[in-house]
Amino acid sequence: MKFDLKYFILKNNALLIYREAIKYTYRIKDYQTRVDTQNFIRNEYEISRKEENRKRIEYMLGNARKQLNEFKQTYSLIK
Question: How many angstroms separate the first and last alpha carbons of the chain?
Answer without folding.
Answer: 45
